[in-house]
Structure formats: structure tokens, C-alpha cells
């Protein structure tokens, strides 16, 4: 199906990513989408959970009668946030704490870290001047976690992240390429836990490369999302974040304010309906079906929505 050109975006690399996504089959007739120039463009980050939640949004919107265009797996926030701000995307599944830190550049500390309502208010204040509205957060959240293999934990007596301090200089840490610059990754591990690792190895964002590298002892410590199915399928130990580096990371739809005006309150209602039913346990289950069982994302999303009465009627 030939899709219309996306709204113009200043950065040509981002526009190319979106064009590739549009031409790769999003908004197919099988899903009942009628793609027009007024389509709701749903984007996601370049890791599987984000793509799955983006597909939940897309299919729920289609079931609600909205034309949808998909732009999955675009990249990190350095790619996705400008695309949302400049109007190449209408909807992105975001994570409260990380999104707020990325936008504000400020530090999050103390009780605010775990306060979903406080983080939501601050994120809305940060997004509002950019023409973006943050809808209602889901109960579901996914934090960055620090993981080791069970033999490593036993050998080094590791149960908490702070236990790494005496041995980190001898260990290799694996994580996504942006980890060395991220406050909730290596930057925060150094400032909050005083951890300086022997080496950093760039992998993926808690995906198959990271799991394989940790399981195969190519790295000693790895960043894994707390909803990663590998934490139950592999011989891994998630270390306790005992100094509370990681903030609340509830999933929340970030939506262009002009898209809400174009499509009306029904757009908000549909997306909030997905959020209201999405739990952390759901994320773990969805990730297992996609990443371990290798089921198609569209099929997994369709099944989840149907079970909750959010799919086509």
C-alpha cells in the first residue's frame, strides 16, 4: 500500500528513518487502517518493548476509527524526541523519569524519584512549550537494571549495586551505545555508586546482544531493563538499586498537542484506555512473547487488546 509523505522534518536522517518505516508495511489493509494525510503517526524507540507498546497504541487507535501510520524502531531519544517536537510524529510511548531528565537536563533526587505524580507534572511542564501533551501514565513501568550472572554474584558476593564498588575496576560493563552519557546509566553509576568499570562495551538496549554477551561472559555486568524476560529465562541476578538511582519509569503516551486538537478527545480516551490496563506484569509477558517466543509484534498486540476489550468490535 502506498503511503502519503510524512510531514516535513528538518533533520533529513530522521525523515529517512520515517520514510523507511512507512514503506515497510505499517498501516496495512490487514489491520483495517486507512492511511491519509491526516493519519495519526505512531513512533517508537529502537528496542522491542517500545515497538510493542507503540503497536498497542496503533491497533487501539485503528479500532477506535483513526487512520494510523507506523514509524517503529526509529532510534534513541536523540532521534525520536526531535521528530516528535517537529511534528514528524504524533504519538510516542515514553518513560517518565528518563524522558524528564532528557528534556530538562536536571537531576532527580530524593522522594521525587519514586513519585509518579510529581514526575508526571514536571514532564508535562517540560513538554508543554514544545507543543506536546503527556497523557495519563500506565501502572506499568520499566527501569534500567544492573545485572550479573548468578555465578558472578556468588563469586563476588553481589546482591546490591553498591556491592560492585570494590570490584568494578576489574569488570567489563555492557550496555547501549548511549550509556556512557546517560545519567541513569554509567554517569549515574559513577556519581551515585562511585563505580568505574575497567571497560565499557557498546551492545544494544537490553536486547539479544546484551543477553548473549552477559550469558557468554563477554561482559561481567550489563544494563538490563527490569521487564527483560531474560531475568527469568537466563541465570541472571538483578542487583538491588540500594541508593535509588533509578526514577519511576511509568509508560506514558506523549502526544502532539495539535494532534489532540485535530482528532479530538477521543484520541486521548483511546490512548488512556490502553494505559489504564497496562501493568508491569503485562510488559514482562509481552516482551517474553516477542523476544523469547519470537511471535509477531502485531499478533501479540492484537491478542492483548482483544483480551481487554480494546480491539476491533
Q: Which sheet architecture does the biggest sheet show?
A: 5 strands, mixed
The helix content is 40-55%
| Helix and strand composition category | alpha/beta
Using only C-alpha atoms, the radius of gyration works out to: 19 Å
- Beta-strand proportion: 5-15%
Low-confidence stretches: 1-13, 20-35
Notes on the structure:
Helix content is 41%, strand content 14%. It is of the alpha/beta class and 313 residues long. The chain has two domains: 12-141 and 250-307, Periplasmic binding protein-like II (D-Maltodextrin-Binding Protein, domain 2); 144-238, D-Maltodextrin-Binding Protein, domain 2. α7 links the parallel β6 (172-175) and β7. The radius of gyration is 19 Å and the shape is globular. It starts with 11 loop residues before the first helix and ends in a 6-residue tail after the last helix.
Précis, in short:
This protein is of the alpha/beta class and 313 residues long. The protein has helices spanning 12-23, 48-63, 77-85, 96-104, 116-127, 150-156, 186-193, 208-215, 230-233, 257-263, 265-277, 280-292, 297-307, and strands spanning 40-43, 68-71, 91-95, 132-134, 144-149, 172-175, 199-202, 221-225, 236-238, 251-256.
Amino acid at each position: 500500500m502506498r503511503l502519503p509523505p510524512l510531514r516535513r522534518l528538518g533533520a533529513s536522517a530522521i525523515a529517512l528513518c520515517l520514510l523507511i518505516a512507512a514503506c515497510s508495511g505499517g498501516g496495512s489493509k490487514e489491520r483495517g487502517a486507512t492511511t491519509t494525510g491526516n493519519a495519526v503517526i505512531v513512533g517508537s524507540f529502537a528496542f522491542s518493548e517500545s515497538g510493542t507498546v507503540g503497536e498497542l497504541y496503533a491497533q487501539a487507535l485503528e479500532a477506535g476509527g483513526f487512520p494510523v501510520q507506523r514509524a517503529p524502531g526509529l532510534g534513541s531519544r536523540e532521534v525520536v524526541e526531535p521528530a516528535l517536537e517537529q511534528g514528524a510524529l504524533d504519538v510516542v510511548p515514553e518513560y517518565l523519569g528518563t524522558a524528564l531528565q532528557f528534556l530538562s537536563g536536571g537531576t532527580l533526587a530524593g522522594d521525587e524519584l519514586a513519585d509518579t505524580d510529581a514526575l508526571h507534572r514536571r514532564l508535562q511542564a517540560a513538554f508543554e512549550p514544545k507543543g506536546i501533551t503527556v497523557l495519563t501514565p500506565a501502572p506499568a513501568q520499566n527501569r534500567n537494571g544492573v545485572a550479573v550472572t548468578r555465578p558472578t554474584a556468588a563469586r563476588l558476593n553481589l546482591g546490591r549495586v553498591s556491592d560492585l564498588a570494590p570490584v568494578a575496576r576489574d569488570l567489563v560493563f555492557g550496555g547501549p551505545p548511549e550509556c556512557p552519557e546517560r545519567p541513569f546509566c554509567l554517569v549515574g553509576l559513577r556519581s551515585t555508586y562511585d563505580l568505574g568499570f575497567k571497560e565499557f562495551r557498546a551492545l544494544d538496549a537490553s536486547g539479544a546482544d546484551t543477553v548473549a554477551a552477559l550469558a557468554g561472559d563477554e561482559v561481567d555486568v550489563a544494563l538490563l531493563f527490569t521487564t527483560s524476560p531474560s531475568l527469568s529465562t537466563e541465570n541472571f541476578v538483578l542487583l538491588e538499586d540500594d541508593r535509588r538511582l533509578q526514577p519511576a519509569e511509568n509508560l506514558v503516551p506523549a502526544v502532539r498537542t495539535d494532534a489532540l486538537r485535530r482528532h479530538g478527545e477521543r484520541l486521548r480516551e483511546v490512548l488512556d484506555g490502553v494505559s489504564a490496563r497496562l501493568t508491569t506484569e503485562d510488559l514482562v509477558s509481552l516482551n517474553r512473547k516477542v523476544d523469547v517466543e519470537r511471535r509477531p509484534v502485531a499478533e501479540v498486540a492484537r491478542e492483548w487488546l482483544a483480551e481487554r476489550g480494546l480491539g476491533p468490535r
